[in-house]
Amino acid sequence: MDATTSPETTAPDQSPAPEPGPARPWQSKSFLGWAALIVVYVFWGGTYLGIRVGVETIPPFLLAGARYLIAGLILFPIALRGGGPQLRADDRPRWPAWLACGVIGLLLLLGGNGLVTVGERSVPSGFASLLVATVPLWLLVMDAVLTRRWIGWLPLTGLAAGLAGVALLAGLGDGASATGASGRGIAIILFAAVSWAVGTILSTRLKALPQRPLLATAMQMLAGGAIITVLAAATGEFSHFQLSHVSFRSWLALLYLIGPGSILALSAYGIAVRTLPTSTAATYAYVNPVVAVILGTLILSEKLTPMMLLGGALIVAAVALIVARRGSPGH
Fold first, then answer.
1. Residue 25 located in a structural domain
2. Where are the alpha helices (DSSP H) in the chain?
């Protein structure tokens, strides 16, 4: 008998492996990235609605402090485990890293989100989202000042259009008065947008920040949340706060801001920026305000005026021009 094995008698363990079938659409990186980006569109856009509902019966600094402290406490152990059992030296949360995260948390979470929460007590959620959408405009101006470089005609056109939109929303037309937005609230939210831009730029320059983004974000949430909570106590919010006075929908708003609005959307954004082109992931900057305006109109019956629509359209178009030209505006 022939010692070799004929094709007809090939042993099962020697048979060639079957060729893999075609990848399913939902298994592709592009599909995963777009699914994550849609989550960012909806849930980050919905945070303005959540804040507006939350401040109905929860003091603003207390709302923002609780949101970030709880979200940070949930994210921090996850971020630590994500680095494996042996963290690199530059990833360990030491005091210089905590100090840097405290500075960024002060600018982004207190100066940025905390003041937006205060402003939304007198500014409709959709209106507020359009004002916050100016962050890329302030980033453009600050970057041009710091680098002393010509920004180009296209971004300059976007900047001019965006500032015109801000002027319309701030009351040069009927945009502010007809929607019930107060001048003080508008000024607070615009200052918050500037603070967010400063924090974004500074976050790229502080060397002590952890190298892993999720760990840095969790630490910023903890530090910023603690600062906001101390401010809530200093301004007397705790002394006037009673749990029994918090409405059911304000509790739901807080849960939304902690879960979908912070943890889920942040994780989804991390997936989007890793799987999609930067310019595509950055589209959240001008989609979020559109989502916020739609949600505010449908759920809270917030008013839309022609001047608000025009001003909002100018800001969204300006951000689209700047983001398309320069990449991600940061969040």
1. no
2. 29-45, 47-54, 60-82, 95-105, 115-119, 125-132, 135-147, 153-167, 175-179, 183-203, 213-234, 248-258, 265-275, 278-281, 284-300, 306-326
Measured between alpha carbons, how far is 142 from 70 in angstroms, rounded to an integer? 32
The span from the CA of 120 to the CA of 113, in Å, is 10
Closest CA to 191 of 117, 286, 121: 117
Range of the domain at 67: 31-82+96-326
Q: Is the pLDDT of residue 286 over 90?
A: no
Which residue in 277, 284, 241 sits closest to 54, CA to CA? 241
pLDDT(89) > 50: yes
Which pLDDT value is given to residue 171? 66
Report the alpha-carbon distance of residue 51 to residue 48 in Å, rounded: 5
Domain membership of residue 203 (yes or no) is yes
**Domain presence at residue 21:** no
pTM for this structure?
0.83
In a domain, 219, yes or no: yes
- Return d(Cα 31, Cα 221) in angstroms, integer: 30
Q: How many residues does the chain have?
A: 331
What are the pLDDT digits (tens) for 205-234? 888 888 888 888 899 999 999 999 999 999
Return all residues near 48 (Cβ < 8 A) that are at least 6 apart. 116, 120, 125, 126, 128, 129, 132, 292, 295, 296
Tokens of 39: 């989550």
The total number of structural domains in the chain stands at 1
